[in-house]
Every structure is written in C-alpha cells, then in structure tokens.
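Researcher: Here's the sequence for the chain we discussed earlier.
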Amino acid sequence: MTVRRLTVEDWPDLWPLLQGFGTGLPEDEAKSVYAELVDDPRWAAFGYDADGLLGYAVVQDYGPHLRAGRHHHGRLHDLYVRPDHRRTGIGRALMNAVTSWASTRVLHLEWQAHYQRSAPFYERLGYKGLPCPQPEYPTFDVELPTAAARRTILRQPLGDPDGINIAAEISRVREHED
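Model: Thanks. This is the structure I predict for it:
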C-alpha cells in the first residue's frame, strides 16, 4: 500500500474512480485530458495503490501570477477515495502527498469542498473552510511552509511522493540538529 505518482498506464484503474467521483465526460475524452495532465509538469496526479487504486488526488501549480509573482497558488482539483475504503487513512495519505508536492512549488494551496460530503474530512485534518459565493462549497486556502521550514517542523514521515524521500530527508536534518 503506497501513494505514488500516476502515469498514463494507470488509466484503466483510474477510470472507475473518476466515474465514482462523478464526471460528465465520455471515457475517450476523459482519457485524453488525463494523458495531457500527467504529461504537464504543472500537474500531479497521485494514487493510493493497494493491488489496485483505492483513491486518487489531482493538484495543479497555477504557475506565475502577474501581480503575485512566481510560485504563488496551486489548486487541489480532486481527492477521492472509494466509499468502501474511507476512514482508513487513504485520504490523509493522499493529502500528505498533495501538500508535499505543492509545498515545493507554491506558497498557497486552495480548493473547495462540499460542506457536508467532504469539508468535514479536511477539517479533521486541521484545515478551515471559509465562506465563498457558493455557500455549500467552503473554500480552503492554506499557506504552505517552504521546503526548508517543512524539514524542521515535520515530525511524521509522509512517504515518497514525487521521488522525494521525505523520511530520509527528515532523518538527515534531525541528525545535523543534534
């Protein structure tokens, strides 16, 4: 069981999850969009793999902003766990991978979540939703610590998202702190 970056080859396992989350796209169009996203370095798709995908998350680095500068905002577009595997830590593991990836690229990560179906999950992780024009979808906007700050404040390894061995990096930093 692991969180890993998804590739084009993961499409057959991802498609049922997309359908479970809800999509109006036909499969051939969704597959084409997915292939485009996983090839774009501004996007990352993560999957929780346990002999098949049990959940996925997709995050985007919006890139430079004319008024705010480079590396400003990212957006969590999707985080979905199969209903029969919820409340098992999969969503938390996917969110850890998302925030780890985003913290090396952006200063803020934002997303919206339905106030009944998904906002309580993010609130259990310590995030706070703010009112927005669509009251049933609070907006979550968190400031991410820089990679250097993360090395000193993290106390639990997050795994190996995007080829970064966070556990080893934390151990290395802790050894030099002592």
